[in-house]
Amino acid sequence: MWFLGSESWVLGSIFYVGLLLKMDLCMGNDELFVSTNGTSGWPSSVSSMYILGDSSVDCGDNTPFYPILHQNLSLNPCNGSDQTLLPQLLAKKMGLQYVKPFYSQNGSMEDLLNGVNYGAAQATIMYPKRGSYQSLNQQLRQAFETIQLLQLQLGQDTAKSLIESSLFYLSFGKDDLINYLVDDESSTSPGYDGLRFTHILVDQMINVIQNLYDANVRKIVCMGILPLGCSPSVMSIRYNSSIGYKLGCENDVNLLVLEYNTRLEQRIVDLNIKMRGAQVIFCDTYRAMMEFIFHPQAYGFEDAKNACCGTGEYGGTKGCLSPDMACPRASTHVWWDLYNPTEAVNVLLANSAWSGDPLPSICRPITFKALESSAY
């Protein structure tokens, strides 16, 4: 089990006091389990969602001092709010309420039972070299604090049942590769080549999955990295590159993404065999995004290269500093900003992850719908 750092301990203590103040301690455990759609009992076999990740799950609202720390990246990494992002869209499909960010929790048991979004824009798997973002390890400590609170308040057996029926959503790696590929090499290079770096990232993700399993988590979804080599930022940086100009995407960058995704899925296949009772799903956002990028009109898009909100070549020189900068119709674009897709793309990803329509087999070995209806 993870030990709490000083900052996490303080936050956890405040959260714990809030729970004590707001819970009705005379209430029986069974009465605590009121599903998020207002009916008694669990709404499905997925009782709640706990989200860990980067800007794919957080618009910056859950990142303390993000307006100061965002550096040259987007101040607004999504269009409107994190309710337009993939995990929130999937939570809605599962009958769950909006999963509140960790730093907006009010200490109520209702919020805790519904799930928590620990995600933070620009979060990394490896500890960040610069800034003060909530890395994977920091978010994992917060998740384990939540599990400990559930055990304290509900008892070991009831908390175990809740955790086993909860879905843990993991979406990392994008910012690690961005830092490795784009930032000043002298300050961020970890000292090994790109392939080795992707293997280390995968090893860390597998360790996290195993740690969650040891904490009685049985439903886990790992999202792959989208094709960064086609992103407006990378395209802008490589604008004068003859390779990029001819191919439309930077293949050397995408090869690293593919190495990470392929290796992560292979390791997940092994985990599903070894970890008894676990359901670990890999979702191939890379393949889906490439389909949208190379066949945009088939999915209602008009622009698959330029960011809706940004400046410079491909809208990828500077990020989205204000929604006023955005294009008139974001739904016609594949990319929202430097590295993140639009809400329209997230909706298509959510539909595909949920039921395999319009894109089949994005999530493997089963869809979210199959996971949601399966017994734990």
Automatic annotation (TrEMBL):
Family annotation (InterPro entries): GDSL, GDSL_Est/Lipase, SGNH_hydro_sf
Family the UniProt entry places it in: Belongs to the 'GDSL' lipolytic enzyme family.
Key words of the record: Hydrolase, Lipid degradation, Lipid metabolism, Signal
PANTHER family, per database record: GDSL LIPASE/ACYLHYDROLASE FAMILY PROTEIN (AFU_ORTHOLOGUE AFUA_4G14700), OS12G0126100 PROTEIN
Name of one Pfam family that matches: Lipase_GDSL
Keyword Transit peptide assigned: no
Signal sequence region: 1-28
Gene3D superfamilies attached to this UniProt entry: SGNH hydrolase
Protein name, per record: GDSL esterase/lipase
GO molecular function: hydrolase activity, acting on ester bonds
A GO biological-process term: lipid catabolic process
Protein source organism: Solanum lycopersicum
